[in-house]
Amino acid sequence: MDAESAFGAANAFFVDENFDEAITHYTLAIQLDDKKDIFFVNRAAANIKIGNYTDALADANSALSLDNNNSRAFYRKGCALFYMDEFESAKTAFERALQLRPSSTEVQMWIRKCVVEIDGTASAVGGQAAAPAVPVAPPATAKPTPTIAPTPVVPSAHEVAAAAPEQVKTYPSSSKKAKDWSKLEKELDADADKPEGEEALNKLFREIYSNADEDTRRAMIKSFQTSGGTVLSTNWNEVQTKNYEKERTAPDGQEWKKWDS
């Protein structure tokens, strides 16, 4: 098995959510060719899926050593650091990813999560909650009565579920403060409804692949990889006899080239 075949098999395992096998085949691909940054980026994604955040961070850094402008590598690095509670470093990685992909609402969302975690950590270290940005005066008719502030009580998960009109979303974190990510996500709902670029392509690929039979999956992987991403066919009878590497055409104004290693 060559590196590209191992990588294709790894992607298939990833789509099937068999992440251990995906990692095994990504590793084989890297052993056969350790100069492809995408091999490390995808293995980082698989490692994140099973909670191997240290390994995912190492893979992201390896990818960046091959291409320091790889937005996906910065994104994977940010995710790994976030789950390791390294929120400042995660935010820096996400900000670099956003510089390379300014339209990514997904990256914007992660930056907001980092900001919330960083603010919460700062409050905890200071020993008191952050003051409101704008003080709110009591109504003119109200007569203030001296009271002793009650000790803050953190509601139980059951109480939150009973009181909230909809389920509060949570994400992995060692922070003792509960975070309501739903509020952040709603701010970006208008932009996040439709995936763009690579995200949209990956979503389409996963939807078709997840419901396909074995021949259709083989056709999709071979046509997409050997055509350089210009063809995605589901017809195995056609794909198995075609040589897309010879037949593929470059977009207008560009040409395919082979570079000597």
The percent of residues in helical segments reads 55-70%
Low-confidence stretches: 125-171, 187-193
Query: Strand percentage, roughly?
Result: under 5%
Mean pLDDT: 74
Properties at a glance:
14 helices; 261 residues; mainly alpha; single chain
Please tell me about this protein's structure:
- This protein is an all-alpha fold and 261 residues long.
- It is built from 14 helices and no strands.
- α1 packs antiparallel against α2, α3 packs parallel to α5 and α4 packs antiparallel against α5.
- The two termini are 20 Å apart.
Fold blueprint:
Layout: H1 3-15, H2 19-32, H3 37-49, H4 53-66, H5 71-83, H6 87-100, H7 105-126, H8 157-163, H9 181-187, H10 189-192, H11 197-210, H12 214-226, H13 236-239, H14 244-247
Helix pairs in contact: 1-2, 2-3, 3-4, 3-5, 4-5, 5-6, 6-7
Brief characterization of the structure:
The chain has 261 residues and is mainly α. The protein contains 14 helices and no strands.
